[in-house]
Amino acid sequence: MSEPLNSLLKSLNTHPKSLVIEKSLSTAINFITPFSKLKELANIQNVYWFNDPLTVSSSNSTTFLIKSNLSNIPILSQRIHELISNDPTHKINVITTLDYFKSFKHELNKIGIYGELQSLTSWNLYIHDPTSNSIQLYISELNSLYLYKTPNIPYKLANWLNEYLIINPNLQITHILSKGLNSSKFTSIFKNLRNDYKNSLSPLEKKLESRIEKGLYGSSSNNSGKQTDLIVLERNLDFLSVLLNQLSYSGLIDEVYDIDINTIKLDSTTYLDSENDSIYNSLKFMNFGIACDYLNNEAKSLQLQYDELNNLNDLSHIKNFVDKLNELELLKKQVSNHTKISEEILNKLQTSDESSNYNTLLEFQQDILFANLSYSNIISKIIELINYQEYQLYDILRLISITSIVNNGLRERDYITLNNEILESFGFKYFQLLQNLIKIGLITIRGDPSIIKNFNNLNSKLKLTSDIDDDPNNPSEPSFAYRGYIPLISRILQNSIHPNKRSSWSHLDLNSLLLGKTIDEELTQDNIGLGGLLQKNDSMVIIVMIGGLTYSELATIKFVERQFKEKYGINKKFMVLTDSFINAKDLFDSNL
Question: How far apart are CA 434 and CA 592, in angstroms?
């Protein structure tokens, strides 16, 4: 049984109850367990949607399972009053997600609702995808990171990692590489949590812990060579990977349909089950065009196998084929499912107007990224697109933000002009959004501090842009997930991890390229200097991305992992931890 399910069942308990659930959480529940099983385990008698009025409840106990967004409080207050007005003795329990739990509790107390509750608990929800070894905490508070500058996300990520290490004692962090203000907060919190845990151990447990640590760099210990690097980065170091159009299979699906834990909405709910769907598992980290070719080949291969069945005369061969029939039928269903998804996306992007707009934006992004247009021409063209009124606001904001990053800020008069054009075309309601994009550093004015000190210098050092005509079926660079751009996180990994020495990025001189504290710290002493040489297949890299990760970035991370194994013969395992998967829409929505 998974930890998120254990946590939920503990809060729900086994007393008979009605469950009122926020509809958006149903995807998460169905991911961790079939809902019918949850009803049975938690003794749930009736289920209602949170947004629907509660006029009747057949039990004398109701539990609300909702997100801790403060916008839910008025609805919750109304639902509680509906229950109490029918039965003043009704028992009410509330379970919320962790995002804004403390603020949520404070607001309930403030409006006098908290006293009506029998209990208020938080749900430790996270989503683990074993096929990519990625974990998302499923929290949506990106605005707390850069708008309100609170350490909520760094703390929750650090706490999750600490708990993970406690239940996996043989996994020891030997080295930390960290860049950015929030990354340094994470590192500080994480180290304090680890110290608190180690101080709480008994003398015998401390002895065992010490033995594991010393064995990491020995030559005969079971743990020898199982070092674990911790690399911590944050979103504002590379906003471009969110702003540029994603071209990986999973990334493009997310941009068009918003993946919610392997689920998207087409004409009906469609599931992308990466654990049991062999086709999606093959496609999700491919370039979208290559994925479509792969699907076509799979469909042809399936048809050939069915044709063979029709031509078989030998009974033994027919029996062997029939034994494979269930497997073929499942594969056929998966191919059909993904063919439908890819065709829907192509139809959406290739309708006359949308295709023209999409291709125009993609080409324009390239012109900005590779400086094919002068800065003045870029600003003029963006104004033309605004006045053309055929493009969505977020498409325009993408272009403005990309221009700001690549050109080291906007001239103040250009920002004022663009600001006025947007408010006139899209409405004054977006005034605060434009102000917030300045606050979080997505758009900067020339002369003001910027996280990227100079994009040309950063690009020159890490080679983030690439116009290499790579073989799309066998790429040599992780440039397949975006057109001509390689995410900072994958370049950092390529430049940090080595087969025969400890990981380091001292040679990158990141302080001259990016604002924010740089940490390069050894946590477990290598007394004999053999750490890098002793690396085994069980050595690991834990990558923490604070502020969300795109699916296309994950695709490039997995590419680097495969590339390292092919190049050096070491199966170093990458584990990715983030607060959520995001796209450009999520980024802008979080600042509304």
Answer: 9
Q: How far is CA 14 from CA 18, 49, 278, 367, 410, in A?
A: 12, 21, 37, 60, 59
Place of tokens 């697109």: 385
> In terms of C-beta density within 10 A (0-12 exposed, 13-18 middle, 19 or more buried), how is residue 495 classed?
middle
The mean-pLDDT minimum among 168-177, 202-211, 574-583 falls in 202-211
Kindly list the structural domains of the chain, giving each domain's residue range(s) and its CATH number in brackets, ordered by start: 4-124 (3.40.50.2060), 130-238+478-590 (3.40.50.1910), 249-349 (3.90.830.10), 355-407+409-440 (1.25.40.850)
Determine contact, residues 180/492, Cβ cutoff 8 Å.
no
| pLDDT tens-digit series, residues 255-297 | 999 999 888 888 776 778 767 889 999 999 999 999 999 999 9
Name residue 230's amino acid: L
Q: At what angle do helices 288-311 and 249-257 cross, to 10 degrees?
A: 110
For residue 171, give the 3-state DSSP assignment: coil
Residue 70 is given by DSSP the state G
Tell me which DSSP letter residue 25 carries: G
CB 547 within 8 A of CB 442: no
Mutual angle of helices 488-496 and 551-568, in 10-degree steps: 20
Contact 400, 421 (CB under 8 A): no
Q: Which two tokens stand for residue 349?
A: 């992007």
Q: Lowest-confidence range among 273-282, 426-435, 492-501?
A: 273-282
Residue 435 has pLDDT above 70, yes or no: yes
Question: Which tens digits make up the pLDDT trace of 509-545?
Answer: 999 999 999 999 988 766 555 555 555 667 899 999 9
Look at the alpha carbons of 460, 464, 469, 470 in this order and tell me if their dihedral is positive or negative.
positive
Residue 301's Cβ-count burial label (10 Å; 0-12, 13-18, 19+) is exposed
- Phi-psi category of 553—alpha, beta or left, where left has phi over 0 and alpha has psi -120 to 50? alpha
Residue with tokens 């007394």: 527
Instruction: Please provide the DSSP assignment of 301-329 as one string.
Output: HHHHHHHHHHH---HHHHHHHHHTHHHHH
Backbone conformation region of residue 525, classed left if phi is above 0, alpha if psi is from -120 to 50, else beta: beta
> Which backbone phi and psi does 576 adopt, to 5 degrees?
-115, 125
CA angle 289, 290, 295 (to 5 degrees): 100
Quote the tokens at residue 249: 């299979």
Residue 480, sorted as left (phi over 0), alpha (psi -120 to 50) or beta, turns out to be alpha
Positive or negative, the CA dihedral 457, 459, 461, 462 is positive
Contacts of 197 (CB under 8 A, 6+ apart): 162, 166
Q: What residues contact 282, with CB distance under 8 A and at least 6 apart?
A: 294
Indicate the SS3 state at residue 151. coil
Q: What is the DSSP letter of 573?
A: E
* Residue position matching structure tokens 């605005």: 143
187 vs 232: CA distance, rounded Å? 8
Q: Give me the half-sphere count of Cα atoms (radius 13 Å) on the Cβ side of residue 389.
A: 7
